[in-house]
Design goal:
The structure is a homodimer of 253-residue chains. The first copy, chain A, is α+β, with helices and mostly antiparallel strands and 253 residues long. Chain A has eight helices and twelve strands. Chain A has a five-stranded antiparallel sheet with strand order 1-2-9-4-7. In chain A, strands 3-8-5-6 form a four-stranded antiparallel sheet. In chain A, strands 10-12-11 form a three-stranded antiparallel sheet. In chain A, α2 (117-126) crosses α3 and α5 (188-194) crosses α6. Chains A and B meet through β6, α2 and α3 of A and β6, α2 and α3 of B. Chain B binds a DNA duplex (30 and 30 nucleotides) through α6 and α8.
DNA sequence: CGTACGCTTGACTTGGTTCAATCCTGGTGG
DNA sequence: CCACCAGGATTGAACCAAGTCAAGCGTACG
């Protein structure tokens, strides 16, 4: 297949290297890191980078495009557990027992840099900067997931969507895009699954935000007109609930 | 405070070392690991090992007792994000930006081994076995959290509690305890928060399991009489839901 | 001994799901 | 070029699982 491109030693020219695992590497270390990148794989929408149960042998950096990770529940439903954007590390679920615990599927035409674990491990051992960066990225993934546990555990549908949109905006901005206008690469079904909702609820919440003038939407194109209104929802409970909370607040001395 | 005990070089005698970060270390490496353990801290119930925002400087291994990690939501509610049992690694949320992202609070009188990061990092760099074990534990934490995202995203209250009880049983068994009889160290409130439910719902689900004879409960003491009945619920939809579906199917003609 | 707190229980309410119908829109083939 | 179709997305109506509210129980502890 022509979906494999040899790109050894291309990290120096890669515009993404200021975001990815190589971010903090200088001169010779960056060159050495480039040699760890075995190849760059080109993938189409719905292509799977790996699925649950696959043998783990490499980590990946998403170079372009986007992807989702997902688990299949015991009764066969798909639960989306995360979305990946360029520069992000994919595959750390395999480090535990050399078998992937979840699957990763591309949302659009994408390319990923493949980092075979033996080579990467050797460089992690010897490069302090890479080791710090690597641990930092893993730790960040843990924190993001914890945040998501809070989202699923405590927030209502409206708040979950607001959080999701603000998070997407932040990540787009981080990559140099607009912080208020962007295209979602995932379907409403993926968003719903990720947020622990059904697709109808997502649709209704989007409409609600549009009607109040917080956002403008056209299919997958999103324009955040008033971020504050979205942020406000995360802090304050919806109007109806407020006076019951006041009672609790008084007893918090 | 007398809550600090100097225990340098005690890993060799530690019964837990076959579970913890030192598991795969042999002879001299294990001795060296013992010197990384700066001290063992003794903590009382409700003591905080660290809270969100604290500066990160060490990782910890829970030596005895148990703990919970938690986040505080923007409107001040506590979300329990995980429980720790002996041998488990605590504090990886700090590796990202040297600040703890969540808090960890003891559930009972506990002791933790403190591993200052600079020393641990040096050993991770030089010991292949420790590095593998370390990455494995972190990866395991990621997988556990992903599993929890599925739990919160797809399972109903009954299934969440069943999953929780089976998971607790498995972890107790792993530590050499009984797989069917154990004491929970956390309150119903913590369980409810962890499972994204309210305490009343947890109470009702416990009663439901007792009434059907799956479990026996006395305060925090749990006896799993019929694990299969609990496991069954994770795969199949509850009976009550089934026949309401049937009823609807009948009334559709 | 009493009181505070963890836990349980019952009655009621509701946010989000389910079911069903319809509307887009992009791709395909005649 | 248009007709057709499939799958994503939206909308409305009805329902129910879990939350809320309120009351009461039991036990640990000062």
């Amino acid at each position: 297949m022509s979906s494999i491109t040899q790109l050894k030693g291309s990290c120096e020219q890669c515009a993404l290297s200021c975001f990815c695992l190589a971010r903090d590497l200088l001169g010779s270390e960056r060159t050495r890191f480039a040699s760890v990148v075995k190849r760059r794989r080109l993938l189409e929408p719905q292509d799977k980078l790996f699925i649950a149960g696959d043998r783990f042998y490499a980590l990946y950096i998403l170079h372009s495009g986007s992807a989702k990770s997902y688990l299949i529940s015991e009764n066969g439903e798909q639960q989306v557990t995360g979305f990946y954007m360029p520069g992000e590390l994919i595959g750390i679920d395999g480090l535990s027992d050399h078998t992937h615990a979840y699957g990763v599927e591309m949302l659009e035409t994408s390319s990923v840099c493949e980092l075979p674990m033996p080579e990467l491990d050797r460089m992690i051992a010897t490069s302090w900067a890479l080791r710090q960066r690597f641990l930092s990225l893993i730790s960040h993934a843990v924190i993001e997931e914890q945040q998501m546990l809070l989202t699923l555990g405590k927030l209502n549908a409206e708040q979950r969507l607001a959080q999701f949109l603000l998070n997407m905006a932040k990540r787009h901005a981080h990559l140099g895009g607009s912080a208020v206008e962007f295209n979602l690469s995932m379907s409403r079904y993926d968003i719903a699954s990720y947020l622990g909702l059904v697709v109808e609820t997502v649709s209704r919440m989007i409409r609600r935000f549009q009607e109040e003038g917080s956002i403008e939407v056209n299919r997958r194109w999103i324009h955040l007109i008033n971020k504050n209104m979205l942020q406000h929802r995360l802090i304050h409970v919806s109007e109806r609930k407020k006076h019951t909370q006041k009672k609790q607040a008084i007893s918090t001395d």
